[in-house]
Structure formats: structure tokens, C-alpha cells
Description:
This protein is α+β, with helices and mostly antiparallel strands and 51 residues long. It is built from two helices and two strands.
Amino acid sequence: MCFESTQLRIPDRPDLTVVLHNAVPGTDTMRKLEWLASPEGRRSTLRPVSG
Length: 51
């Protein structure tokens, strides 16, 4: 997956930075993120527990 990051400084708190990660346009990153967030994507990561 390909992301662009943007750092935002907090004026009142110079020790803090907010970092935003956005999908790079023209890649399939957004499609993959949407699938991971979907019920189908979450179900596919479940594994049976033996015991």
C-alpha cells in the first residue's frame, strides 16, 4: 500500500505533531483499505481457535 503523510504541528504544544496518512491517488491503496474495513475483510482475518 502507498501512502502520503502530512505532519501538522500544534501551535500551543510544540512537542506534539499530528500525522495524517492518505492513500496515494492512482494506486489501489484506497480499494484495499475499504476492503479491510468491510465486514468481508474483517471476517477473512478470523481464525478458528482450537481447544
